[in-house]
Every structure is written in C-alpha cells, then in structure tokens.
Amino acid sequence: MAAAAAAADAPFLGPDSPVHGTSQTAYVSPLALLKILVHAARDSPVAAMGVILGEEVDGFSVRVVDAFPLPRCAGGGAFTQAIDPRYIEGMLAMLNKTDRLEGVVGWYRSNPGFYGRPSNHDSVFHKAFEQLNPRAILVAVDPVKSATGNFTMNAFRSVTSYHETSSNVGALNREYYSVAEDEKPFFELDIFAQGLASVFYSILISHRKNDLEINILKSMDKMGSKGSSSEDCRSLCQFPVMSESEKKNVEVSKDAST
C-alpha cells in the first residue's frame, strides 16, 4: 500500500520530458586521439589508462579535446592503475595555466585483444570517474587489433537500465556489454535485473578538426617524410617518466600475461 501511494504521488514527466541516453555522440579531437593511441601503443600489451578532458555540449553530444595518462602502481600482485583525485586535480590546475579550461568528461582505457570492449574491471574504475563526472564516458581502444591507417576504438557509458534509441544511425551501433568474466556481450535481462552485473552501452564516435589541428597533422606528416624518427612525432604527447619501480611492475605484468 505504501509503495502504491508513493507511486501515485510521483510526478508524471510525460513523453516530451528531457531524458538522457537516446542518441549520443562523442566528438574526439585529433590531439586527444593521438595521445590516447600513442599511450596505448607504447604500453601494449599492458593496458594503459588515462583521463579525457572536454565538455558536454548537450544531453546528446560530448566534445573530447585533450587527454593525459594516469600513473601506475602495484597492488595485489597485479598491475593496476592509480586513480588519485589529487593527481588529477594537480594536472587540471597545471593545464588551466595553459588555458586548457575544460573539465573531466571521462577516461580512456586500452584493452589489448578485446576489440575495444569493456573489461571485467572497467565498471569499478568507471564508478570512480562518475564521482568526478556523473555522466563520464569510457573510450576503449585496442592497439593489438589496430593497423596502419585504421584503429579500433569505441565509447561507452554505464547504465542502470536498458536504453532504447530513437536514432536510425545509433540503432545500427547499439550494443550492451557486461563485465562478465567471459568478456562476452551480455543480454540476460533477468540476471541484470537482480543486480549481478554492471552494463555499458556504446555511443557513437565522430571526429572534427579545426584549422589549427589540421596544420598540426600536416606538420607531423612533413616530419615523417623528411626522415625524422617516430619519437620526434610522439614528442607532441608528453607522458610521465616511469620510475624504476614502475618499470619493474611492467616487467612483472608482462611475465604474468605470457
């Protein structure tokens, strides 16, 4: 009776009320894309992880303009990433000094060999980033399956219920993934309703370039044509230098993966 009374008193939002998760697109800038791919390729076959910066334009589109990696740590005998809010706040403060005023819109993750799909640990990390941004997105890349001129990348958000899409384009790419141990797509609604799994749904990814970004890409192409090493081109993406302990953790994780 109490539940029925509470349901009767709840306001009816109506079919025209603003809702999220109907047709969403993440617009990734070339700078953010380069940093993510370089970080993922350099750490492969170890998974890389970092923060993506940008702004939410509206309820249907997110603009990703920059990214930076997160430091690594050893925990429980396995290689993990450290999500330190103080580190993220410090990076944002330094970026603000360079007129990079955008905030955290999510995080990126490389899952080598999984075709850019969420892994069984990503829901835990995603919950942490949702404390920084309730509508955080996950950009997953696969450096192993990527090839020259092509890359495997997908974007996701977590859901508490299944979403339907009103977009014809979005309907072609609407997929749900769980964090099940077998790493396979998950569709069992009865199991999901019992709260035994956390589900991501995929959102569209698009790319836009302004004049400055076009000039940067052309300059990188000229550097490669003149015989410059790939390290010169990668100098655009500066990452923290690993300490000796971090290098040891990488070797341990590589040995464990073989």
Overview of this protein structure:
By secondary structure, this protein is an alpha/beta fold. It has one domain (24-209): Cytidine Deaminase, domain 2, CATH 3.40.140. The chain has 9 helices and 10 strands. The strands form 2 sheets. The chain has a 7-stranded mixed beta barrel with strand order 1-3-2-6-7-8-10. It has a two-stranded antiparallel sheet with strand order 4-5. A hairpin with a 2-residue loop joins β4 (72-75) and β5 (78-81). The protein starts with a helix and ends with a helix.
What are the defining features of this structure?
globular, alpha/beta, 258 residues, 7-stranded mixed barrel, 9 helices, disordered N terminus, Cytidine Deaminase, domain 2, two-stranded antiparallel sheet
Q: How would you summarize the topology of this molecule?
A:
Blueprint: H1 2-9, E1 25-28, H2 30-43, E2 49-58, E3 61-69, E4 72-75, E5 78-81, H3 85-96, E6 103-110, H4 122-132, E7 137-147, E8 150-159, H5 168-172, E9 176-178, H6 189-193, E10 199-207, H7 211-225, H8 230-234, H9 244-257
Parallel strand pairs: 1-3, 1-10, 6-7
Antiparallel strand pairs: 2-3, 2-6, 4-5, 7-8, 8-10, 9-10
